[in-house]
Amino acid sequence: MSILDQDSVFTSLQQNGPLATTDSVQLDSPFSKKTREWLLQLRHNRLNVTKYRALRSQIFEFLNVRGFEQIPALISTPRLRRERSHRACTLLGNMFGVEGTPREIEARIYEYARTADAVINLLKTKIMAPYASHIATTNEIEVTNDPVNLLLIMFDDRYHKKARFEARRKLVLMNLAGSIDQRERETKIEEKFSLFLEFLNDYVWSHRLKIGELEIVYLLSRHAPDDFSCTDVKVIDREQAKKILPEPHVKLTLLKRRRFIAGDRDIPIYVSIRKKSPEAKVLKLLRKNEKNPAVAVDDELGLMAVLETIADIKMFQNRLVRSASKADSFLVLEDISDTLTKDSAYKITCTGSSSKTPMFKFFARLGGMRVEFIIHTNRSWLNYMYQQDVSHDEYEVRRIFDSGVAELLFPSDIFHLDHRAIRDDMIRLFRRQIER
After folding, report:
1. How far is the C-alpha of 77 from the C-alpha of 324, rounded, in Å?
2. DSSP class per residue in 130-197
């Protein structure tokens, strides 16, 4: 089910449905011709009627009003707004299981607002960077973190349609941020992340190197002119890298490698620890059309590794199993997929993914944690970085646009953007940056 379908869980943000943000707000005309026409549109889908009634009830309870006619007085009375704001933060704190003083709860709710802003800024600084001025949030909305004030802006006709939509969008993203924070506290993800790093340092990495000590090398690679896939790669040191002159279809890529011991061998490995930021998790919930982080975000802890050969990968896997035993934990590998061999193909499960993406992937359950491992050889990692239709930069663009997230967050009728054209333009831009 698409995020833009009528059965989407994010109906309240859709600009192609009955709950769309309109050009103006009229709270004092419940029997006008425009209101009757809107009601007829709403009744075309009984699910939308149910969603509207639930949303209306939540709004009235949140603002502590009996009907829409009481909202203008609330907008014009600062004292009432402050009272409702304190009450609303207490309600939200209880809903998300936040403990502490009223000031501490309010600070946590405001942190959700900053995460909501960070979602937009994340897209603005990379995926849609050339269009940053088009999608920049209205100043008044960006500096407003109080949920009651944001909700009242939605009903305040002094604000432009774009600002009222952004207030609604910020509230939706705040709600997702709150759900994610609650999930992280329940699962103790911060504590588990620290334990995972301790496990790697104590049992997996070579003790011949200090913690954090890295060996700097370069991958000198040649790439096919047609799709920029890696045709040849070799590892060189810093002195050799200084002598390399720029050539077409040749890349020089830095790696900072750790080491682990397998028998009498000291095997180098590049490692990137992956812990999703709150804003990245919010975007994943949107892409998955899901409001429950327990369902949609299954890769909170992860590790990406690059080794030289498939044989090294197998030795690293064995090292993990033996290391877990030393740490008094059994290690079970789950959801294993191996597409590094030529006779296997990557099964697409995510919007924007490419079937040409090779990797060795599994989840390791150990010590009360479930950690995602994505492992590459030098060649497959270079393809993951640079190959046409495979590179991670292209994948990030495709999954934001093809999933409908870009249209949901920046609807065309408000932001005046051609999302299909922007998608193709951004992919071309990343290809130029990769291949130059």
Report:
1. 61
2. GGHHHHPPPHHHHT---HHHHHHHHT-TTS-HHHHHHHHHHHHHHHHHHHHHHHHHHHTHHHHHHHHH
- Domain borders along the chain are 11-186, 189-390
In contact, 429 and 400? CB cutoff 8 Å: no
Q: Quick: pLDDT tens for 211-254.
A: 999 999 999 999 999 999 999 999 999 999 999 999 999 999 99
Residue-wise pLDDT tens digits, 150-205? 999 999 999 999 999 999 999 999 999 999 999 999 988 888 888 889 999 999 99
What is the C-alpha to C-alpha distance for residues 63 and 139, in angstroms, rounded to an integer? 24
Rounded to an integer, what distance in angstroms lies between the CA atom of residue 138 and that of residue 167?
9
Contact between 299 and 276 under an 8 Å Cβ cutoff? The reply is yes
Nearest to 335 by CA among 322, 347, 325: 347
CA torsion angle for 319, 320, 323, 324 (degrees, to 10)? -150
Residues with Cβ within 8 Å of 257's Cβ and at least 6 positions away in sequence, in order, are: 214, 215, 216, 217, 268, 269, 270, 271
CB 129 within 8 A of CB 214: no
DSSP strand pairing (332-338 vs 360-366): antiparallel
Q: How many CB atoms lie within 10 A of CB 267?
A: 21
CA dist 28 and 73 (Å) reads 12
Which stretch of DSSP H or E encloses residue 366? Answer: strand 360-366
Nearest to 428 by CA among 389, 382, 399: 389
What is the pTM assigned to this prediction? Answer: 0.91
Cα–Cα distance, 74 to 80 (Å, whole number) = 6
pLDDT tens, residue by residue, 337-372: 888 875 444 454 555 455 567 899 999 888 888 889
Nearest to 62 by CA among 138, 166, 155, 161: 155
Distance from the Cα of residue 416 to its chain's centroid: 24
Reduce the DSSP state of residue 214 to 3 states and report it: coil
Q: What is the pLDDT of residues 94-131, one digit of tens each?
A: 999 999 999 999 999 999 999 999 999 999 999 999 99
Q: What angle do CA 68, 178, 369 make, to 5 degrees?
A: 155
What residues contact residue 40 under an 8 Å CB cut-off, 6+ apart? none
pLDDT of residue 34: 79
Task: Please name which of 117, 90, 114 lies closest in space to residue 104, comparing C-alpha atoms.
Answer: 90
Q: b/e map of 16-48 (b: 16 or more CB within 10 Å)?
A: ebbbbbeeebeeeeeeeeeeeeeeeebeebeeb
